[in-house]
Amino acid sequence: MRTEILYEDGNIIVAWKPAGLATQSAKVGQQDMVSELKKYLADKELRPVKAPYLGIVHRLDQPVEGLLVFAKDKQAAAGLTVQLSEGTLNKHYYAVLCGQPSCKEGELVDYLYKDKDNVAKVVTGSHEKYPEAKRALLHYKALEEISTPKELTLADIHIETGRFHQIRAQLAHAGLPLLGDMKYGGDSTAVLSRSLGIHYVALCAYSLEFCHPVSREKLTFQTKPQGKAFSLFE
Known about the structure:
By secondary structure, the chain is α+β, with helices and mostly antiparallel strands. It is built from 4 helices and 11 strands. The protein has a single domain (about 5-230), classed as 2-Layer Sandwich (Pseudouridine synthase), CATH 3.30.2350.10. Strands 1, 2, 3, 4, 5, 6, 7, 8, 9, 10 and 11 form an 11-stranded mixed beta sheet that branches. The longest helix is centred in the middle third of the chain and has 13 residues, at about 75-85.
């Protein structure tokens, strides 16, 4: 199993997803995180009466690594979903940006919509002309900058809105695409990524904080990025 379980009790599972593994896939024969965890839960039961329940609360893009929490029952799923919608399920990401921001700490506010090709587009005119566009708010803080082999920045990212491909689309639109992001980064990012041997998006959901949906205990989990891009920094 490529998925790594960090915590489990009777209601929830917190696990790390490696880059390259889908959270959930509709493609026949393609392994994904949900399938791995459901098999793990089924194998724990000697004679399972029915398929185990696994509630998906949030997701990560396939080329992104990091922490996710899943519910093992419907009560836990409902409680976690409420926290996600209210913004109290806090997630922080490490990202490697191509370039160095002029302001070392700030926020990005854009309006995003998903086009027919499953690409997040930033509205550049009046967003009232795009009724499907939704407000996207992102906070960033530069943690470390390097100039060799190219100007790159390790940043801490926190999003207050969970839009489709939000971090990748907003930072690319701001002129700071993520290293390894072939979808939003453009040709120069692709060339640099290939030269460094970076095959996945340099984005890691490293911190997850929420209240246990049943006990109400505050829980915090953190992990260290494993992607090659992060090894460029201290």
